[in-house]
Design a protein that fits this description.
The chain is an alpha+beta fold. It has 14 helices and 28 strands. It is globular.
Length: about 625
């Protein structure tokens, strides 16, 4: 099915907020003096740059400390959080009240070295304890507090917003401990929002009693950020804090388990082999050295190391407490989710799952997906429409726009295509069956055929997936492909694989890639890998408790791959590749384990726009 592109991207009908209405919103529209006061201006459903707000020399900049209602560093005193504010001068000279764009982060005060020698070794036998890892060298501590960041300021200040930043607990001059998804990381931004809305206290110094208020805030706050900075708006939204009207989480970790594990398997984030929660603690622990040793003992070497379980990879109470998908009951913030389908650091399932659950709750939400990796490329136009609607209250109709925007393979982010939803409502599951010959290239068939037999993989963690996909023959993988497409084929949704397998050892890695052949060598990010997935066959029946494999016994293992939305072009082939260890993502046990796949009990389900009829037409197979 061909895809649609709307050349008038996001230029849908809107209600233009008149200048006089903006003045009236400031409470002075019917008074003669109000006509000279500066106020936000809106056109095309977006906040516009206002001359009176443009001069950065006139912006008010201040930093302060918000009093939290928790003590996360064990010193017997409630933590204070370092916050900065940049706002238009008119908030002081003309009584102007403005909404806030807020970004919080554990990274603002500096981070540890990008050195994988501090990570866990991935040379580890499955089911065996890992070798100890060295701690990172400590992050330097700042000399004195001040302004934290300039991110987002230039975009929003001239358009009639204030911008606020804060350092996460245990980073920079924010007191407390980093907990990597612990409760204080959700409560900290909640406290900042409470202060902005007049419900919490802020102070000029870390230990003083001179208060600072946010009487200039309109009571509407929107949070935005990417990666960890995009995870924290999710954490804050789960608290249901009043005043958090909208969030734009970009490439967030909605589940810390989903960031570091897959279906019971210990898995690294793409590009960071051996990273885990305690490593990330070291990477962000930039807080006051006087409390770091307590945080290291109680949090890093206590709660985190005791909870992560790099032996089994099972889902446990520790991971459940850091899974925001379990905590959506109070969520009310209008949500624009954004993610890349080729983000192998924070996997796209993280945003897809939250988006689906928020739709079920009836929360106003929209999805923006693209074909790139772990990046922020959400068009500012869309962000502006979102915050204009939910922070300024301008009825621009953004919530009535198409629910999903997807950047097609040949498009720029500003030229994203609109769809009724994600997954594409026209997609339907198509079941494909592997045929014998997978050590070379076997076929994927539209119908099961008995008697296909069993085929074997010999695990070799040193073999890269890209090399295996290009090999004409290999004992280290199985590869099954559809015929070449004679017309484009559109995948939209979450593929699922079922494998009937046996292993000659009680534990094995299991890795599955969907690839596009012929392999192009990564000329474009969409050329080669369509999607991926990983699982521990020991967790075939339960994510919380693995069961060792009985060597030689066959088991049915089913799991989802990462969601995708991609149009494969004519001339490409869609292929299923099955391996044991994945050189890029899994632990590396000693080579030699043998996996046997019973082809008669194995299948792949692919969500195709237009269903089986469209897929058959794309490969010239007819009905």
């Amino acid at each position: 099915m061909s895809h649609r592109r709307d050349p008038s991207f996001f230029r849908l009908p809107f209600v233009l907020a008149a200048f006089a209405a903006a003045l009236a919103a400031q409470g002075g529209g019917d008074q003669p003096a109000a006509a000279s006061k500066a106020a936000p201006v809106f056109a095309d459903g977006e906040a516009q740059v206002v001359d009176a707000f443009k001069d950065r020399k006139e912006w008010i900049r201040e930093w302060l400390f918000v009093q939290a209602d928790f003590d996360s560093d064990g010193d017997g005193k409630k933590d204070r959080l370092h916050v900065d504010v940049t706002r238009p001068k008119q908030t002081a000279t003309e009584g102007l009240k403005v909404p806030v764009v807020y970004e919080t982060s554990p990274y603002f005060a500096g981070t540890g070295p990008m050195d994988t020698s501090y990570y866990w070794s991935i040379e580890q036998e499955l089911g065996q304890p890992p070798q100890p890892r060295p701690a990172m060298s400590p992050i330097g501590f700042g000399k004195k507090p001040g302004m934290i960041s300039q991110s987002e300021v230039q975009k929003w200040l001239p358009r009639g917003f204030a911008v606020v930043h804060s350092c996460s607990p245990g980073t920079g001059f924010s007191q407390g401990c980093p907990t990597i998804g612990g409760p204080n990381e959700a409560l900290a931004p909640k406290m900042v929002i409470d202060w902005l809305c007049g419900r919490a206290k802020g102070y000029k110094t870390l230990d003083g009693d001179e208060e600072v208020t946010a009487d200039w805030c309109s009571g509407k706050v929107g949070m935005v950020g990417t990666s960890y900075n995009g995870t924290l708006p999710i954490a804050a939204a789960t608290t249901g804090v009043e005043g958090l009207a909208a969030v734009i989480p970009i490439a967030p970790a909605a589940s810390w388990y989903g960031y570091y594990r897959s279906n019971g398997l210990v898995r690294s984030p793409g590009g960071y082999p051996g990273e885990d929660m305690d490593v990330l603690f070291d990477f962000v622990a930039s807080g006051d050295p006087k409390r770091r040793s307590w945080c290291i003992e109680k949090v890093r070497d206590g709660e985190l190391k005791n909870g992560i379980d790099r032996v089994s990879g099972d889902y446990n109470d520790f991971w459940a407490a850091r899974d925001y998908k379990n905590q959506l009951g109070k969520w009310q913030a209008a949500t624009l989710m954004a993610h890349g389908f080729n983000d192998w650091n924070v996997m796209p399932e993280q945003s897809v799952s939250i988006y689906a659950m928020l739709k079920q709750k009836g929360v106003p939400c929209m999805a923006f997906f693209h074909q790139s990796g772990h990046v922020d490329n959400v068009p500012f136009k869309l962000q502006n429409r979102w915050f204009t609607r939910f922070l300024h209250g301008v009825d621009n109709g953004v919530e009535k726009d198409p629910k999903a925007w997807i950047v097609r393979e040949d498009a720029r982010p500003s030229g994203a295509s609109p769809y009724a939803d994600y997954p594409n409502p026209e997609a339907a599951p198509v079941t494909l069956w592997p045929m014998q010959g997978g050590n070379g290239v076997g076929a994927l068939a539209f119908a099961a055929a008995t008697g296909q037999g069993k085929e074997t993989i010999v695990d070799d963690p040193k073999q890269a997936g890209a090399a295996l996909a290009q090999a004409e023959k290999s004992d280290n993988r199985l590869l099954f492909a559809l015929p070449k497409f004679t017309a484009p084929m559109h995948v939209s949704g979450t593929p699922r694989v079922t494998l009937r397998l046996a292993c000659d050892k009680p534990a094995t890695n299991l890795s599955v890639w969907l690839v596009s052949l012929p392999w192009q060598g990564g000329r474009k990010i969409t050329d080669d890998v369509v999607t991926r997935g990983w699982a521990d066959p020991q967790n075939r029946n339960s994510l919380t408790k693995g069961e060792p494999l009985v060597p030689g016994t066959f088991y049915d293992v089913s799991f989802d791959l990462q969601p995708d939305d991609q149009v494969l072009a004519a001339g490409e082939q869609l292929a299923l590749m099955v391996m044991a260890s994945d050189n890029e993502f899994t632990l590396h046990p000693k080579a030699g384990a043998k996996l046997t796949i019973d082809l008669d009990g194995s299948s792949l389900v692919v969500p195709v726009v237009g269903g089986e009829q469209a897929l058959r037409a794309a490969v010239g197979a007819g009905k």
